Amino acid sequence: MSDSKNIMKKIVDNMSKIIVGKEMACKLMVIALAAEGHILLEDVPGIGKTTMAYAMAKSVGLSFNRIQFTPDILPSDITGFTVFNPKINDFEYRSGNIMSNIILADEINRTSPKTQASMLEAMEEKQVTVDGKTYKLPKPFMVIATQNPVEYMGTYPLPEAQLDRFLMKISIGYPTKAEEASILFRFQKSNPLRQLEPVATSDELNELQTFVKDVRVDESLASYIVDLISATRRHEHVALGCSPRASISLFRAAQAAAAYDGRDYVVPEDIRDLAVPVLSHRLILKQEAKIKRITNENIIHEIVKRQIIPVKAKV
User: Fold this and answer.
1) What is the pLDDT of residues 291-307, one digit of tens each?
2) 71 exposed, middle or buried (CB, 10 Å; 0-12, 13-18, 19+)?
3) In terms of domains, do 126 and 252 share one?
4) Out of 53, 135, 180, 291, which residue is the most buried by the measure of CB atoms under 10 Å away?
5) Model-level pTM greater than 0.85?
């Protein structure tokens, strides 16, 4: 248990050498990794989304590929394709950029919906199917996608099915004045990413993910998760609430959060603290709510405040 906590905190501390003042965002990314989930980083250009993804990849020392999504990128560029090899008189598979432990899907909402959809099987099943044949992805596997807000020119909103496959959506936010000054000096001579060294191995991450699955969740807390999810479906401003996949995601994320704090059991605070990043991007609001400028985050905060916290959870 202490080993799991130490590994997760080492990764966060290592990322914080590059990412100034965003320890919570780094923590959420590590929780997602431990829960075998994917991350969507959404914020304005230049805020550090790509840098944060690079820092995560370098901190864990796994194979890493960056896919720069553009309007002309094809699904086969991601998943791979088959070509005829005259030497063996048969077709052979040429792997795409998806065949790595960690994938940085940079500016994922700048490509077409067809290409976005090519990521679905990889994110859910940890495999790709090309010309009827299935190819397993390496383990562990994680997609860190970045996107600009949909109001920006040249963006295609991600389909609901793909949004639902991200464990969390995180917004980094602007740094404070002091933090931005610190960033200037860190990048004064060179990019500090070049000096960043791995602090965890593939075996350690696999052990961490195995441990997280065994973190205990009391039945009352499982019911609490279901109550939160059900409330999103009944809310007056929500056109489409969270799916059962959201319940599973919040369950797994809470387990990983418990491990981060050095516990082998989940407490209500684990669930409450993660409700917004895990659930908010899965909601589709009614038009009247958008007119009133009610946000997805507002809805989740309201639901969390309304739900009664279990007080007799067995730990």
Assistant:
1) 999 999 999 999 999 99
2) exposed
3) no
4) 53
5) yes
